[in-house]
Amino acid sequence: MSIKPVITEYIEITPGVCGGKPRIAGHRIKVSAIADMYLHMGLSIEEIAKTYDLSLASIHAAMAYYYEYQEEIDRQTAEAEAFVEELKRNSPPSKLEKKLREIRGE
């Protein structure tokens, strides 16, 4: 019996798909999203698998991948969040925001 590298069966990185970030193979669910659901939102491995119709093995593989590359994934996530905040700060308010401010008298 030979040992197969399991993570490569469940995790893919494809340029142009999900920004080239690691994701569940055959899906557009990033490893970072799985880790966030599990670590920060408190969902169990079973809940995540059931909600997204994924195998338990794929969720475990995503978490194993996350822990192996945690520093890099966390850095990329922080950079993306900082980018979004920068865009928010530098973007003019939307028509809806303007209307709501008018209604509130701001």
From TrEMBL:
<feature type="compositionally biased region" description="Basic and acidic residues">
    <location>
        <begin position="85"/>
        <end position="106"/>
    </location>
</feature>
<feature type="region of interest" description="Disordered">
    <location>
        <begin position="84"/>
        <end position="106"/>
    </location>
</feature>
<dbReference type="InterPro" id="IPR009057">
    <property type="entry name" value="Homeodomain-like_sf"/>
</dbReference>
<protein>
    <submittedName>
        <fullName>DUF433 domain-containing protein</fullName>
    </submittedName>
</protein>
<dbReference type="InterPro" id="IPR007367">
    <property type="entry name" value="DUF433"/>
</dbReference>
<dbReference type="InterPro" id="IPR036388">
    <property type="entry name" value="WH-like_DNA-bd_sf"/>
</dbReference>
<dbReference type="Pfam" id="PF04255">
    <property type="entry name" value="DUF433"/>
</dbReference>
